[in-house]
Specification:
Blueprint lengths: L2 E3 L2 H16 L2 E2 H8 L3 H13 L3 E6 L7 E6 L1 H4 L7 H14 L2 H23 L4 H14 L3 E7 L3 E7 L3 H4 L7 H11 L3 E5 L8 E5 L4 H4 L2
């Protein structure tokens, strides 16, 4: 089956961010090896990431030769990844569950999703479907999910490989519906989930079809 993958810039960008996150600091050559691309390509992405204030660089002097740069995540860059708010979030959810029935908790999560969608609706509602998917990936990133998408012969697939709620979700599975509801609401199409990090999978994977033209404009 032929697979058409979203442009390489997205996936290379994600690898760069993940590599820097894992290593704390990384050089151009280290990132080029990790992403299996040329140093020139890495520098292109690093310039873009710095322009977005996601990275900072430091010059390292050596005894012989010119100084070289190492790159690390800025505060804004760290916000792309899960933070250690799990304990507080878990306790808050525990207290909410003591005070309210399960259907109220579910509705609260749905309301949060709809609030995000309504805030962003003017930005995506008139976009072509694939542009809408790209916008969705950016929106998910703002909420802490790193994701990529691809188009196969008969469907689209979206893979999330960073979940900001994985610690909290292990005890409160209701939160797992957040990203799927966001995907459905932005794309306005049926979505099937094939894997979930909360179930021990390596990623959360979803598939979906493009809606009819009439559905896509709702």
């Amino acid at each position: 089956m032929r697979t058409v993958t979203d442009n390489s810039k997205e996936s290379t960008r994600d690898i760069i961010l993940h590599t820097i996150k894992l290593r704390n600091k990384a050089t151009v050559n280290e990132l080029a090896d990790a992403a299996d691309v040329s140093p020139v390509t890495v520098r292109h992405h690093l310039n873009a990431l710095q322009a977005e204030s996601l990275l900072v660089s430091d010059s390292v002097r050596r005894k012989v030769g010119r100084p070289y740069h190492v790159y690390s995540l800025s505060e804004k860059g760290h916000e792309l990844f899960p933070k250690r708010y799990a304990r507080l979030s878990t306790r808050l959810l525990e207290e909410l569950k003591k005070e309210f029935p399960a259907e109220v908790i579910t509705r609260l999560f749905q309301n949060v999703v709809q609030s995000i969608v309504e805030e962003q609706r003017e930005e995506f509602e008139n976009l072509p479907f694939e542009e809408r998917i790209r916008y969705l990936v950016e929106l998910l990133a703002e909420e802490g999910f790193l994701a990529r998408w691809e188009k196969t012969d008969d469907e689209y697939r979206l893979v999330e490989y960073s979940c900001p709620y994985i610690s909290v979700g292990q005890e409160h599975t209701e939160i797992c519906s957040f990203d799927k509801e966001l995907i459905i609401s932005v794309l306005n199409t049926e979505v099937e989930q094939h894997s979930c990090m909360l179930s021990g999978d390596q990623c959360c994977e979803f598939s979906f079809m493009a809606p009819t033209s009439a559905e896509g404009q709702n």
